Amino acid sequence: MENRTAVSGETRFLHAIQLGVGAMPWGDRLVWQYGRSHGEQDAHEAFLASLGQGIAFIDTAEVYGGGSSERLVGRFAEEAGKPVLIATKFFPMPWRLSARTIPAAMRASLIRLRRDSVDLYQIHWPSPLLSVEKMMEGLRMCVEAGLTRTVGVSNFDQSLMLRSYSALARHNIPLASNQVHYSLLNRAVEKNGLLGRCTELGVRLIAYSPLELGLLTGKYGPENPPPGNRAVRYLHILPKIPPLLKLMTEIGQDHGGKFNSQVALNWVIRKGALPIPGAKNADQALQNAGALGWSLSDDEVEKLDAASDEVLGYRTGATAAANA
Ligand SMILES: NC(=O)c1ccc[n+]([C@@H]2O[C@H](COP(=O)([O-])OP(=O)(O)OC[C@H]3O[C@@H](n4cnc5c(N)ncnc54)[C@H](OP(=O)(O)O)[C@@H]3O)[C@@H](O)[C@H]2O)c1
Fold first, then answer.
1. Phi, psi at residue 318, to the nearest 5°?
2. What are phi and psi of 58, to 5 degrees?
3. Fewer beta carbons below 10 Å: N end or C end of the chain?
4. How far apart are the C-alpha atoms of 236 and 181, rounded to whole Å?
5. What is the pLDDT of residue 110?
6. Does the structure show a pLDDT above 70 at 319?
7. What's the whole-number mean pLDDT along residues 29-49?
């Protein structure tokens, strides 16, 4: 059989990508109000605007919009006629109890995505019903069948990530990435050492919710909470964020008028992670793309760290915190 095992050079392509796009809002009605706040044309324009700015790494998942996000990404990418790098994810549903369910789910994703392989296939969440070793066995099957260029995990803590890394290494397959929540308003992975461990192992940390579901753009605040269940989720933090948002605006102004969203994303990039902000329309996508081409100084990163520590209840040098 042809040996299609991923080699480390293949895995490193993720390290060359600075910014991607999260495709969850494209098709997701429950969290992102697809069909109400934005529609298919907005999603398509967001996709094209990103591509036009050279941002060609798109993150989706089989569960986003019950497959709608994958279908839209597949169609947009096919019509674009330009190279698009696609990452998608396997969700460990409770009835998926063997390694074989992983390549089976992946083939279904590929049909929705209209392609023969993707660039990154990730396990969406760990599961008490399917061991890490079985999951890695399923990912190995995907690599060996040529269905994906690289494999990764998502929402894995250090110990699960190390088990994944070792299980794949036994088959000479590198663990390419760990996709986790990381933003100026959620620094758990930085404080608990996961980010450092990823850097050490060459595992790309992909940062989801890097705008903290829109909070870091500055358009929401205590007087103007975000719609839907985001208001409840952020009830306690909203009154604390104005000083951080003010500092972000000041720093953005010092860089020729960068938006808060751009400061938030640049901060993630400066920390060594790959942010994948969601964008509902072309304006948001274009604004997010403006996180590239400039860089926060060390001093500015330190000031932002301190302001975020204050909001999150970290004390300098402390490891315990509100969101750890
Ligand atoms: N692996 C996982 O478990 C997991 C979990 C969550 C997300 N993800 C991935 O990460 C991606 C991003 O995370 P996320 O969608 O949770 O949160 P996010 O990127 O922090 O926030 C995205 C939301 O912020 C608002 N927004 C984006 N850009 C903006 C701009 N420039 N100006 C103003 N508002 C802007 C939009 O919502 P409004 O306009 O409604 O405010 C948008 O839907 C997802 O699409 C998905 O691919 C993965």
1. -85, 150
2. -115, 130
3. N
4. 19
5. 98
6. no
7. 94
In 3-state terms, the chain is what percent helix, strand and coil (to 5)? 45, 15, 40
Instruction: Give the residues across from 88 on adjacent strands.
Output: 121
Q: Is 181 helix (H, G, I), strand (E, B) or coil?
A: strand
pTM tops 0.85, yes or no: yes
- Distance CA(87)–CA(69), nearest Å, equals 12
- Rounded Cα–Cα distance for residues 59 and 78 (Å): 16
Ligand 1 close to Cβ of residue 210 (< 6 A):
yes
**Strands (E) located in the chain:** 21-22, 57-59, 85-90, 118-123, 148-154, 175-181, 204-208, 274-275
CB 10 within 8 A of CB 150: yes
220 is catalytic: no
Q: Is ligand 1 within 6 A of the CB of residue 186?
A: no
3-state secondary structure of 189: helix
The residue with greater pLDDT, 7 or 128, is 128
Instruction: List, in order, residues 6 or more apart from 285 with CB less than 8 Å away.
Output: 21, 45, 46, 47, 49, 50, 53, 55, 279
Nearest to 156 by CA among 168, 147, 144: 168
- For 180-198, write each residue's pLDDT tens digit: 999 999 999 999 999 999 9
For residue 324, what are its two tokens? 């750890």
